[in-house]
Design goal:
With 175 residues, the chain is α+β, with helices and mostly antiparallel strands. It starts with 5 loop residues before the first helix and ends with a strand. Helices cover 20% and strands 45% of the residues. It is elongated. Strands 1, 2, 3, 4, 5, 6, 7, 8, 9 and 10 form a 10-stranded antiparallel sheet that branches.
């Protein structure tokens, strides 16, 4: 089965509706409510702490019996540092890397400035559109969460961050 985003699912459902305009409008509103109730997104943000090579977002909580469908990291205010690479870790502990393949240059492969809008995601099209360095690759066997799980996303560089802000998110379906 191919991955489909919540907006893609809404489009698919809209395109399958048959009948008069009133019926289609009612059914479309119901489908949108249904899809919105399936997908949940937890978002967190941080302001980079000066003189630190590692920036850890506050934990994102995913409830028990959920399937993680997407991860994302976005620079929201220009970031500067004295090194040329910036990467990420995603895990169940601060600094952990058990939920996704760690990338030392996943946010940026070279340069000392990351512009607002730069990001890395588990969806290839989003990473490409945001000039991200690498697609976030979840570790096989980790998407289903049988117990409530705190997810920690960390950004790191080979030299301290000087300025900047970022946001991160996890999207999941509660079974």
């Amino acid at each position: 089965m191919a991955h489909i985003s919540n907006s893609g699912l809404k489009d698919e459902l809209r395109d399958t509706l048959k009948g008069d305009v009133n019926y289609k409008n009612l059914a479309q509103a119901t489908n949108i409510d249904l899809v919105d109730s399936l997908y949940h997104t937890e978002v967190t943000s941080l302001t980079f702490t000066s003189a630190s090579k590692t920036q850890t977002f506050p934990a994102l909580r995913v409830p028990a019996s959920s399937i993680i469908t997407e991860y994302g990291i976005m620079i929201t205010s220009q970031s500067s540092r004295d090194s040329s690479v910036a990467g990420y870790r995603i895990g169940t502990t601060a600094g952990g890397e058990d939920l996704a393949t760690t990338s030392t240059n996943g946010l940026q492969g070279s340069g000392t400035v990351m512009n607002a809008g730069t990001g890395s995601f588990s969806v290839a099209a989003l990473t490409t559109a945001s000039n991200g360095g690498a697609i976030i690759t979840p570790t096989p066997g980790t998407l289903y969460r049988s117990a409530t799980t705190d997810i920690f996303i960390q950004i790191s560089a080979s030299a301290p961050f000087i300025t900047g802000q970022a946001s991160a998110y996890v999207t999941y379906v509660k079974l």
